[in-house]
Amino acid sequence: MDAARLTRSWNLVAAHGDQVPLYFYSTLFLSHPEIRQMFPTNMARQRDRLVTALGHIVSQVDQADRLAGFLRDLGADHRKFAVRAEHYPAVGEALLATVRHFLADQWTDDLARDWAAAYGLVARVMTEAAQAAEEVSPPWWVAEIVAHDRRGFDVAVLTLRPQYLLPFTAGQSIGVSHPAVRSWRYYSPANAPRADGTIEVHVRAAPGGAVSSRLVYGCAAGDQVHLAAPVGDRLTLRAAGSADLLLLAAGTGWAPVKALVEQVAGEGSGRRVALYVGARSRSEFYDADAIDKLASACPWLTVSYVVGVDLARPGEFVHPVDRALADGDWRARQVYVCGSDAAVAHAVAALTRAGYHAGQIHHEGSGAQWYGPAWRTAVRAGTAPDGSGGVR
Ligand SMILES: Cc1cc2nc3c(=O)[nH]c(=O)nc-3n(C[C@H](O)[C@H](O)[C@H](O)COP(=O)(O)OP(=O)(O)OC[C@H]3O[C@@H](n4cnc5c(N)ncnc54)[C@H](O)[C@@H]3O)c2cc1C
């Protein structure tokens, strides 16, 4: 396989922009109509995802070793879309037909062989990982919404009870899908694992967002949602040892941070935790009661609220990190940052400028959309090519 040739050919194809996914899905659904129902009803956003990701992955197959972990996660994760081994050849055929179509007279027998071999390798790793995952966990969990609490205009706190225990670690994210929407998005449990297995999630409705709008405005207690296996380890306390913590949360980025605080409370280690919670205005501290309760119950926890834009109080800090850095020197601590991509990027840059080193700053990273944390992990490891922002 000539990897450089594969990459060059994919770049030529990708230059055709939106035409590429359009052709890919038309080919796939025409030749295999039964596959159509596995995709969301509204394909507008999906168009950007699968084929672009596949094209990039296949054209970087020379880095198969570095990609292997990502591909295994992807294969195991795709069980939630009801993807089975027999679907892979159909997708491969549509991908090759797409590349052939856009390369036109630049398509050669050698390229055909390279693309078939590269896709075969990717499909094999993903299929084997999916099979291995069958032994460990179901493809998805059905969960009942046992409480649905609207907090302000666009945020809801949902308590979910999976039919079977869904094991996770504080700081991870889980896939959530509503049966009527059939798209999956990641949300972070806002609690440490509980004896009764319930999971709290904090959802902010993105304007026009398919899943978040449904979860905030179109759900009630008693409804069912589907959950998928937890992913991501960057925000867990695994890497922090027993160090004291500085936690910086903005918006619904408070959710995984709340889980971390609960974990510290549960471990009884006595480590000190400084928490800075940010919001755009005072009314957007949607979980202040819970935060205040934690602060009064935990002597090792200090809490500072940071309002982003508050015209009544000129001079207030915009980001939690700015206020934290003005308050003290936390360089002996492990720092956890969670919020929108912009807030995380700002915090990481400010901490770095202030002399904090990369190993003590924990965040999900910014700049990835296709497959959430699995893709993000690959981006950070340098094994995924690019991506763009998430919403919190
Ligand atoms: C690891 C991780 C953890 C997360 N945890 C949380 C959490 O705890 N809480 C939380 O609220 N969120 C969280 N998110 C974000 C969440 O996963 C979703 O991305 C978010 O809820 C938006 O999903 P959606 O389906 O509503 O929006 P989408 O339908 O994906 O749309 C996102 C935005 O793009 C716009 N859009 C849609 N279609 C198009 C189009 N065709 N062209 C242009 N623009 C378009 C929409 O208007 C919307 O503003 C997390 C994300 C990640 C990666």
From TrEMBL:
Family as reported in the entry's similarity comment: In the C-terminal section; belongs to the flavoprotein pyridine nucleotide cytochrome reductase family.
User: Reaction(s) catalyzed by this protein?
Assistant: 2 nitric oxide + NADPH + 2 O2 = 2 nitrate + NADP(+) + H(+); 2 nitric oxide + NADH + 2 O2 = 2 nitrate + NAD(+) + H(+)
Coiled-coil ranges per UniProt: none
Note the InterPro entries from the entry: Cbr1-like_FAD-bd_dom, FAD-bd_FR_type, FNR_nucleotide-bd, Globin, Globin-like_sf, Globin/Proto, MRET, OxRdtase_FAD/NAD-bd
What keyword terms does UniProt attach to this protein? 2Fe-2S, Heme, Iron, Iron-sulfur, Metal-binding, NAD, NADP, Oxygen transport, Transport
The Globin domain covers: 1-131
Looking at the record, the residues that make up the FAD-binding FR-type domain are: 138-237
- Molecular function terms from GO: 2 iron, 2 sulfur cluster binding; heme binding; nitric oxide dioxygenase NAD(P)H activity; oxygen binding; oxygen carrier activity
- In Swiss-Prot or TrEMBL terms, this protein is called nitric oxide dioxygenase
Cofactor list: heme b; FAD
Q: Does the keyword NADP apply?
A: yes
EC number(s) stated in the UniProt entry for this protein: 1.14.12.17
- EC class, as a word, reads oxidoreductase
